[in-house]
Each structure stands twice: as C-alpha cells, then as structure tokens.
Amino acid sequence: MFTFEAGFFESTFWDWFITILTLGGILGVYLLIIWVNTDRPKDDEDVETMGHTWDGDLQEFNNPLPMWWLNMFYLTMIFGVVYLVLYPGLGSFKGLLGWSQVAQYEQEIDTAKSKFDPIYNQYKNQPLEELVNNEGALKIGQRLFMTYCTVCHGSDAKGTRGYPNLADNDWLYGGTPENIKASIMTGRNGVMPAAETNGLAPEDVPNVVQYVLSLSGREGVDEAAAAKGKEKFAVCSACHLPTGKGNHMLGAPNLTDDIWLYGGSPARITETLTQGRLGQMPAHGEFLGEAKVHLVAAYIYSLSNKEKAVEPEKTAAAE
Known about the structure:
Blueprint: H1 8-36, E1 49-54, E2 58-61, H2 67-86, H3 101-121, H4 128-131, H5 135-148, H6 150-153, H7 177-186, E3 188-192, H8 195-198, H9 205-215, H10 223-232, H11 237-240, H12 266-275, E4 277-281, H13 285-288, H14 290-303
Antiparallel strand pairs: 1-2, 3-4
C-alpha cells in the first residue's frame, strides 16, 4: 500500500499530474507527425490515391502536409517545451524565471498593503465611539462594508431572512461597539436546538408557539394554548430567560420585541421550534485584519446610533 505524507497531494500531486499530461501531449503530437510522414513521397514520386473517385475523374489523393504547415507544428512543440522550462509546469520545478501565480498574488497583496494599510491603521487605535463622528473613517468603513458584507446583510444593512438587520437596535450578541467588533473579528455560531432535542413533544409545539406570540404582544393569540405553552417554555428559558428577553452571551434572541430573524408568523415559529436553527457569522479578523474590521465595526455601529453619527455620504475627505 502506498502512503503519502500530509499535504503531499496539495503540494506536488497536481503539479506532476498536469506536467505528465502536458509532456505526454507534446510527445504524442510529435509521434503522430512522424507517423503520418513515414511514407512521405519524394518530389519526383507520384502521390497515391486513397481509392475514392467521384464523377469519373475526381480523385482523393494521399497528399502529405505542406512543409510550412508541418513546421508550424514543430514550432508549437518547441514553444511548449520552452514555456515549461521558463515558467512553472515541470513538477515542483518553478521555472528558470522563478515566476508563480502565488508569488505574483503575494506581491500584489504586499503592494496594496504598503499603499492602503497606513490609511486603515491611522484609525485603528481610535475608540469606535469617536469614529462615528469621523466622516473619513465612516466613508472607508462603508466602502469595506459594501465590499465584504452586503452579500448577506444587503446594501442597506437591513438583512433578510436568516441574516440580521444591522440598522436597528436589536442585537443577538449585544450592540456595544466592542460586541459588534468581536462578532466581525471572531465570528459567531448560533444554535437553536430542535424541539425533540429540547424535550418538547410534537403536541407541545403549537402551545409554545402561542405563548411565544403572546410574549411580543401579538393579537389573536389562543390564550388557553398559550397558558399550556408557558409551562413548557421552561425548557426554553435556559437561553431566552424566563422573561423571554434573550441572552446576549448565548446569542439567544429577545422574543418580546416582535423582531424575528427567521420570520414571525406562526408557521415560521413552528418551523424554528420543530427543526431548530443553525446560524453562522464567518470570522473576518484573519482575512481583513483588525484595522479594517475596526472601521467596518464603526460604520455598523453608526447605523444603529444615527443620533451620534455623521452621514458618511457627506464626507469629502475620503472622496
């Protein structure tokens, strides 16, 4: 049995796989050309026919490739070999020019960092509460948000089903500047266990749904069912607290404000209770760096604290 060290396939396998296919292709073309030119007639010899005749006089001759065309094949093969020697392509050999797409990417990243990092770093140590009044910082944070965050939270930051609205004051993990920055830096993993895991029987779910609806002051609640659901809500209070106001430490939402991440209709709440939910906010700290995260956090904080913040659209310094 063959064994490979960890990372072998990532580091060398595909290099050699592509190399063998490429060299095999070049060699195959060369052998094909040699084969089809084995019986090439001399200039003074007649060319044989292929035995196909049309209309009595029209015949198909076994003419060889013109020399100019044949030479183009040879030049193409020579170019391929020279390219493989100069550039990456021969196994782990990186080419005489020392070029690689990874090295080029890293060079471009280093160039961008040397140009833009000083701009980001000038705000890194300033408190987020102060940056909400800094037009230039908010403009940069807005542009970073538009680049990295809108795919989930939307260009207006108001989210959609399963993705929180960042422009209100309802926060799963707390809306302080520190909590917002921590959510972006390290990410979040929210888990809502399914009813069966929580020990709720299927017949208990409709009653708990009615009680949860009553917590947010909804009209048309079945009071009798809500009363039964209140007794079963004890298993939910470990995360949502007995009052239903949630727990920022666990990311458990407030059930009394009528703001619903996955929808607040009876059908949606039933689905949440029955199947549970898994929510993930990816960590961006390593990818973006703390300086960029700091600016994004400042912009997001400004969205839910408009009375404290300037409008980034009005900035002139960052234009």
